[in-house]
Amino acid sequence: MHPYNRLPSSGHSTPSPPQSPLRSPRLRHSRSKGGRFTQAQQPGRTFPQRLAWLILSVLLRRQGIFLFAPLIYISSMLLYMGTVSHDVVPVIKHRPAAGSVYRSPQLFAKLRSDMDADNSSTDAISTIWKHYYKGGQWKPCISNSTGGLPESNGYIYVEANGGLNQQRTSICNAVAVAGYLNATLVIPNFHFHSIWRDPSKFSEIYDEEYFIKTLENDVRIVNKIPEYIMERFDHNMTNVYNFRIKAWSSIHYYRDTVLPRLLDELVIRISPFANRLSFDAPPAVQRLRCLANYRALRFSTPILSLGEILVARMRERSARDGGKYISVHLRFEEDMVAFSCCIFDGGSKEVEDMKAAREKGWKGKFTKPGRVIRPGAIRVNGKCPMTPLEVGLMLRGMGFDNSTFIYLASGKIYDAERNMAPLLEMFPNLLTKEMLASPEELSPFKNFSSRMAAIDYTVCLHSEVFVTTQGGNFPHFLIGHRRYLYGGHSKTVKPDKRKLALLFDNPTTGWKSFKRHMFIMRSHSDSKGFELKRPNDSIYTFPCPDCMCFTNKSNATKSSSAP
């Protein structure tokens, strides 16, 4: 009987499947009837072929031998290395990342002749700003309160730390906090810093009487805490409770945490106070910040007088351009170069100078175990301070010719004689406060870094073009102040330093190509002149719309682009 088959039968028996192939290589060849290979079937082999065949057969039958392959390979490599001389070490060359090396001097050498021969530059200083705000313009609209103030909840004493403009942040924020808490603000104390080393008091930098008078209907401000209150603390401010407030705390923290303690103690101290209030705050707080920064804070009479004299002298010298001049904030002082950890072209002397400066200013900070400093990556990310040579190249590429008058706001430039030479060659009409003012005029401010910075601030504020080359509080405040004065436009060249790093690191770039890139960067600065404050932006850099109001203007110039 046959088993049941689901497949239809064809009437023929199903052939049996073929036999499995023989496994041994020796048995894959047919044998003669006597069990031996025939002469016709087995061709003759040489000895090496038979030996190789034998080894292959052994390996296939004894596969465990492959476990020793790594050991055999390592032994062979050791035997080989023993025959190689170790005096010859292979050199692995790698190409630095684009933009990671300082090659600006080589680019300057290549572009110099074409730059000097270029007569196509237009009147750049009068044509640089072309963008207007669409449909109208921005105007200052801060108003003072008119009514009286309720009874004070107590006194707030703050210590403003940092340089000139970091202290300015503390002052404006202190006004806002005191007004919000209905407290009396004591004139802020300036903390002496080991870097700026300026012992100046509030009244030596700002007009204290004008400050108090301007804010009298919004915030109570006094010179000192009454004696009857200080008796409780043995007339010692260190005995007063000090709030250690986290950076960027909200105004609600002051209401919920600081105010109850203020009501109990009648006086509190906040030290340090820089950046201790969030930029995102209610309109009432922002109004007080605007009022303090743009209306109440005015430099002291000696600083303001000399600053205005220098502005007049710059306008007089640049009369050919209608009294318009460029101001450049150059951060290439020794401490800035050292802090950046960037490498320039000063060789071994620069390396030793920067090591000494870092150790003097920030003992041990840059030599902590595990800290890795990558100068190339810093440069690629646009974090290196621009050299005087790079500033000159950029401005010439943007169309400013060598007759342009430039005011240079800076401290003592590192290796000034060598580093300033290319910039002075490109712009011989470059001036500083030391060149514009006599030694007698500068002597009251000479040893006070914050007062000298205040003079620079004044001259930069009134320039037609302001050029910032490095971040920091100075340009941030100045950009906002210029927006406040010039209808919302900062009139500031803010270069793309990442792009510049790539351009400066390419000595093969031609003058026309370089100039095209610089004009694009200049146009971008123009279009970004109008910017509105976003949440968490600084009101001191972006005064619109908190400190300025937009007004429709029927005959406004048509904007080429909306902000």
UniProtKB/TrEMBL annotation:
Region: Disordered, residue numbers: 1-41
GO terms classed as biological process: fucose metabolic process
CDD domains: O-FucT_plant
Biased composition, class Basic residues, residue ranges: 25-34
Record key words, sorted: Carbohydrate metabolism, Fucose metabolism, Glycosyltransferase, Transferase
Gene Ontology MF, one: glycosyltransferase activity
Family: Belongs to the glycosyltransferase GT106 family.
Protein name: O-fucosyltransferase family protein
Native species: Cucurbita moschata (Winter crookneck squash)
